[in-house]
Amino acid sequence: MKSIKQFLYRASRSSMAARLTGKGISTLVILAILLTVVTPAAKGAAPQQATKAPAAPPVWDTPIIVDAPALFYEMTDRSMRYRRLDKPSGDKPDPCVAYGGDHLYFSCYDSDLEVWDTEIVDPSNMVGSHAALDFNSNDAPFISYFDGLNGRLKLAYNLGFGWVIRVVDVPILMLQAGPTEEAPVVDVQDLQQQFNKVPWRSDLLASPDLDPTSSLLTYNPGKVGVGKYSSIAIDANNQIHISYHDEQNGALRYAFSNDGVTFNIEVVHDYHDQGDTGLWTSIKVYEHDPVAPHQPNIAYMDEKYDNVMYVKKKSGYLGGWSTPILVDGVSNVGPCASLAVTSFSNGTAKPHISYMDFATYSLKYAVMNSDLKTFTKTVVDSVGHVGQYTSIAKDDDGRMYISYYDLGNGNLKVAYQVSGGGWSKSVVASAGDVGLFTSIDTRQGGYPGVSFFDASEGTLRFARWNGTGWTGLPTVAYSGDVGLSTSLALAFDGTPHISYMNDTGDDLKYAHAVGWNWYKEVIPTIDEDEDPVDAGAYSSIELLWDSIPIIAYYDMTHEDVSLATWLWWFWYVEFVDDSDDDVGKHVSMELDSLGFPRMTYYDDSNNDLMYTWWKDLTDEWWIERIDYEFGDKGKFTSLALNAFDKPYISYYEDTNEWIKLAYLSPIDAWVKMHIDSVGDPDDDFPVVEAYTSIDMDSLDNPHIAYYNETNGDLMYAYFNGVAWVVEPPVDSVGDVGKYASLAINPVTDERHICYYDATNDDLKYAYWDGGWSTFTLDAVGDVGMFCSIDLDGLGRPAISYYDASMGDLKFIASYTLPLASIFIPIVFEP
């Protein structure tokens, strides 16, 4: 125990300043945590308690969402709108924003309280992307959006009695609405005709008893659907118009409703399987056409020819559509199309379209000529890489404003028309990487407002023109894509401790369960200049004394392997290998029998496998270069220690596409060997992913689970005491085995592997008790990447993993989480 105390004392008195968690201390209050100090058992020794190997695999509980910040992406050029009605005071109306991805959110700014009021409109999973917003004449909000789980277009509106959710359109292979939603009217004859485009389901048409609500027609989640690039407009009669993309058929579609209950669905433009059209749709209703009142106008991208297109109704909102007009046919134009409409002198609609020229990375603008057939095109901005995520709006005088993203500088910009027909351009926001998913609107006197995404901070922001400059309002919403690079450590009683990464803010995070509740925090990783640090990739967590988390991770800012240790009331952060090389990727950590960290990691600068451990005698990190001969080796490392603290490292050699093992022999000499080939080094498509995970059995023999990318299989190899045995694939159904994580019960030798099924986007689990069995543990959305498995003191497995569909950290266990421990802190008053 002396060595452990020296380690903690050394960390607390090191020359590097201790990193406090940020809690203010006004008086001297010292919290002493009551710890029962138990000497750690040697690696491979029997735990304090053990159970006989069960006759059946573990029974898993339902998945738990550990960390789930709001996730929003793919916001449209119509995601922000001002309310239509003026405020009684005559002040500028308040802006509102619709957004989502994990759920559908709606936020409106309260200028009196200077806060954003936010509601979760649709709590369903994987909904809310491609959201577009408009208000009717009574200021009731209407939101069209995409249901990513079911691949369908949905509509939400609030007439003052709560939110109503409707399904507007569905893929042709899914006709069932949710239990509280109304299904759209389906023409079975039309459905059967559309089935001709789906030859792999043509067998269904052979049955005269085809039931359009049959479970056989269930749509495969996460695949193509209808409803992306949605845009909504409410006309003067409060009728609903929605344009959107039919990804399944590559078509532009339009939905109309005069009651919000039933919808008339039309195909506006379709190449009949010869190419895609209808992306980046933007719809506006023109009220003044003498022939076609309440006329919908749509601008969109034709991906087949990479053109910008325009189409409108010919004779009223129930009439036919005009022939689509080519707006700009220069190569590779049309992404991020946005539409505004004014009037010609004869009363017909005059469309104005902003869009991106992807070939020249410029912002362009097109306005229809008086012949009603052609457009005049203008380059608005061509300095650098500009023009993404455009949004156009007109003020009361018909002057155009365009918001857009400057990719080259990471800025939000706005261009507006000046007298003489030119454009004036200004930078609205420039700190960090800002300006994605812009949406601009104008109300009262032409003062525009813009909502946009700040990718640096993961926030949704808003700025508006005050007459002399741009003013930012408080942040609309905070986002977070969390759960990447997860690592799980279970206490003896099964209490989970998880390290993981917030990809949105590039933060290292830590979570642990307190009963049924989860405590989560960002670990403060700040350098000597007090600048924020991007950190958290390749995290690896272990528990000292069954309660103190220690996390190894890759510091992306300094390109170093780093260590964060919890010292009862603050996190101590230190560099482990602070060389000038890029070191620390693929870090894997274990604690030895004295509680000291040992780590293996990849040197990206020299393409070498590295190993480091704390040398107590000299009070320093001892760094060794293990595999450094010619070639690229050391990726996808995994570390295990035997009963004598000798390291065993599995890793991937990129040069020969080998799974390799390095271990320290009893005479302290490193031995490196080839275990299996996972590819052909002469192949034109070399292996780039070969996840490995190593653990020791009860006889101190190493076992390795790994991924064979060439065949898409989960593989397993072990040393039987005499030679290495490479087993037939554990799982070979589809592309399986990525993110393999192995845990072996050191008493019963039960083997547990979690891994990712890339074919079905599922979390899978393999169990061995004399033979292998595989199970799907979570199949909702795209789940299972970065999985990490561990066993508690009774040999029960649990898994942490990433939900890519929701941007969340999830956890699943084969046991009930233990109740929260209760302790009485000792407080010393000064």
Task: Give your account of this protein's structure.
The protein is an all-beta fold and 830 residues long. Helices cover 2% and strands 49% of the residues. The chain contains 2 helices and 59 strands. Strands 27, 28, 29, 30 and 31 form a 5-stranded antiparallel β-sheet that branches. It has a 4-stranded antiparallel β-sheet with strand order 2-58-57-56, with no helix packed on it. β27 and β28 (447-454) form a beta hairpin. The two termini are 30 Å apart. The model is unreliable at 1-53, 174-223 and 822-830 (pLDDT under 50).
How would you summarize this macromolecular structure in one to three sentences?
By secondary structure, this protein is mostly beta strands. The strands form 15 sheets. Strands 27, 28, 29, 30 and 31 form a five-stranded antiparallel beta sheet that branches. It has a four-stranded antiparallel beta sheet with strand order 2-58-57-56, with no helix packed on it.
Backbone CA Rg? 30 Å
Largest sheet, in brief, is: 5 strands, antiparallel
Overall shape: it is elongated
Residue share in helix:
under 10%
Protein topology:
Blueprint: H1 2-13, E1 30-32, E2 64-67, E3 80-82, E4 95-100, E5 104-110, E6 115-122, E7 127-135, E8 141-147, E9 152-158, E10 163-169, H2 188-195, E11 226-234, E12 240-246, E13 251-257, E14 264-270, E15 279-286, E16 295-302, E17 307-312, E18 325-328, E19 338-343, E20 349-357, E21 362-368, E22 375-381, E23 386-394, E24 400-406, E25 411-417, E26 423-429, E27 434-443, E28 447-454, E29 459-465, E30 470-472, E31 477-478, E32 482-490, E33 496-502, E34 507-514, E35 517-522, E36 535-544, E37 548-555, E38 560-566, E39 571-577, E40 583-591, E41 597-603, E42 608-615, E43 620-627, E44 633-641, E45 647-653, E46 658-664, E47 670-677, E48 692-696, E49 702-708, E50 713-719, E51 724-726, E52 736-744, E53 751-757, E54 762-768, E55 772-778, E56 783-791, E57 797-803, E58 808-813, E59 826-828
